[in-house]
Amino acid sequence: MARKIRVLIAKPGLDGHDRGAKVVARALRDAGMEVIYTGLHQSPEMIVQTAMQEDVDAIGLSSLSGAHDVLFPRVMELVHKNKMKVLVTAGGIIPEEDVPTLKKCGIAAVFGPGTPIEDIVKFHKERLKAKH
Amino acid sequence: MNYSTLAKGTLKGDRKAAARLISVVEDEEEGYREAMKIVFCGTRGAGVLGITGAPGVGKSTLVFEIAKSFRKAGKSVGIVAVDPTSPLTGGAILGDRIRMTDLSADPGVFIRSMGSRGGTGGLSLQTSNVIRILDALGCDEIIVETVGAGQTQVDIMGMADTVVVVTMPGTGDEVQSIKAGLLEIADLYLVNKMDLPGAMNTASDLKSMLDLVDDWKGWKPPVLLASASTGRGLDQMLEFIGRHRAWISQPERFLERRSRQARKEIYDLVTMEVHRMIESKFPSVKLDAIVRDVVQGKLSPYEAAEKVAAFAIR
Ligand code: B12
Ligand SMILES: Nc1nc2c(ncn2[C@@H]2O[C@H](COP(=O)(O)OP(=O)(O)O)[C@@H](O)[C@H]2O)c(=O)[nH]1
Ligand SMILES: [Mg+2]
């Protein structure tokens, strides 16, 4: 049987904007992936524990509230501490000037508002294909 | 591939190894059977509770509440939550964790979401294996949530010690569907969302339906009311789950249920094995010829099947 790609879409922190996360989740599902959606208000610890239990190939972080600069690096710290081999992507309202810092701590790509959903799907497909 | 390291890690309580092994089993990767043999020897006899019912009746909310009560009693908990896979794309959104977020960071809880997929093994075989992995990992209690629809709902009977069929008020068809053949699978009926109007009616419909059966062999499934989101009725449900556990644990009964489950699993595995063998070993030229003969009316499908089966049995 074909190896199925599993992705966790997570909403860290107190941010209640979940439209983007749901749009991305649905698009990845339609591309044949199994998407685990956490719901709102996840701590970085919860996200990383979930990713571990679910053995996902990728974690997608969505934040529109401006707390990404603290929460995303913390997620990455835990990912590295647990020696997890996962692709981590992010999206939402993330100022251009924050992107280099996020990439430096290991986030593979950041997708802002208005990104065509096909681009997001294509990116995940290409980056996760190599694993199989 | 050799996955015995993952299996051994699982027996030692390595959660990451267990998580990886579950994927290997779900993907039916070459070599997973060997790993499952090791896991099988490491199982400790966890209690398995099945929660099933139509989408939206409140299963995940209930699983969360039940898991919390197990945690309070000092038990470690494994949760397997199955959601349907889209038959068109093969993708799935697995959202049961949304109702269980408070358990995500609890080291005494392991939650795994599964798509129902549709491999050769079928849901029941994969899910049984996932249950075993969580058992071998050291979970004392395992809760399995499945969406009730035809076969998957029946399958859960082959895995769980106690099955709770959940329904809610205002779904007349729900009672109909239970009537249509799911009578045998429930050990407990729960009308959830008793805070909504009509709960009593749903419960009495269920009860009168159960009254038509007079041969319950010692356990007549109770019909309970609860409200998972407000907490009403949950203690009573837990008490009945406990009572059923005690009833089913009597040696001869336990043996009977487990034997029935083992028998079914062996049958399923044999079917799968035959399938695999025909697919990989039966010469395709020969199969094509047989198919052609059937199409041209030279051979009946029965004779064709006998020919192919004879090959597998040899
Ligand atoms: C709709 C909306 C709301 C709705 C949210 C409904 C919901 N359930 O989601 C409501 C009205 C509830 C709301 C409330 C608030 N909002 Co509001 N909201 C918006 C608005 C207008 C659109 C967001 C949206 O849904 N976009 C559509 C989706 C599809 O786009 P998206 O999320 O950006 O996702 C795309 C990409 O970013 C990317 N993506 C997103 N996540 C991910 C994840 C991964 C893994 C990947 C790969 C890609 C990806 O892919 C998507 C497709 O391209 C934005 C302004 C804006 N233009 O963004 C403000 C905005 C986000 N809100 C804002 C604010 C301040 C608030 C409030 C605090 C109060 C207020 N002043 O309105 C509250 C707080 C709510 C809370 N609890 O957190 C600010 C945030 C400012 C900041 N970050 O500094 C914004 C930017 C408006 C502004 N310019 O001030 N909001
Ligand atoms: N009114 C009411 N709503 C409930 C109750 N239990 C669960 N719900 C809600 O029903 C919806 C579906 O619940 P969920 O647990 O996800 O159902 P599942 O699909 O069967 O797993 C959610 O919005 C819950 O908050 C209840 O007892 N009463
Ligand atoms: Mg559910």
Written overview of the protein:
The complex is a heterodimer of chains A (132) and B (314). Chain A has 132 residues and is an alpha/beta fold. Chain A has a single domain, classed as 3-Layer(aba) Sandwich (Rossmann fold). Helix content of chain A is 42%, strand content 18%. In chain A, strand 1, helix 1 and strand 2 form a beta-alpha-beta unit. In chain A, helix 1 packs across helix 5 (117-129). The longest helix of chain A has 14 residues, at 68-81. The radius of gyration of chain A is 13 Å and the shape is globular. The mean pLDDT of chain A is 94. In chain B, helix 2 (15-26) packs antiparallel against helix 5. A seven-stranded parallel β-sheet of chain B has the order 4-2-5-1-6-7-8, sandwiched between helices. The longest helix of chain B is centred in the last third of the chain and has 31 residues, at 251-281. In chain B, strand 6, helix 7 (172-179) and strand 7 form a beta-alpha-beta unit. With 314 residues, chain B is an alpha/beta fold. In chain B, 50% of the residues lie in helices and 14% in strands. Chain B is built from twelve helices and eight strands. Chain B has three domains: 1-42, no CATH class; 44-249, P-loop containing nucleotide triphosphate hydrolases (Rossmann fold), CATH 3.40.50.300; 262-313, no CATH class. Strand 2 (34-37) of chain A pairs parallel with strand 3 of chain B, so a sheet runs across the interface. The structure holds cobalamin, guanosine-5'-diphosphate (GDP) and magnesium ion. Guanosine-5'-diphosphate (GDP) binds at residues 53, 55-61, 96, 99, 192-193, 195-196, 227-229 of chain B.
